[in-house]
Amino acid sequence: MWVRRALTELRLDIDPSVAPDIVGTMTDMSGVADVSVDALFSSHNIEHLYPHEVPVALAEFKRVLKPDGFVVITCPDLQSVCALIAEDKLTEPAYTSPAGPIAPLDILYGHRPPMARGNLYMAHRCGFTQKVLTGTLQAAGFATVAARRREHPYYDLWALATVAPMAEADLRALAAAHFPI
Question: What's the topology of domain 2-76+126-178?
Answer without folding.
Answer: Rossmann fold (3.40.50)
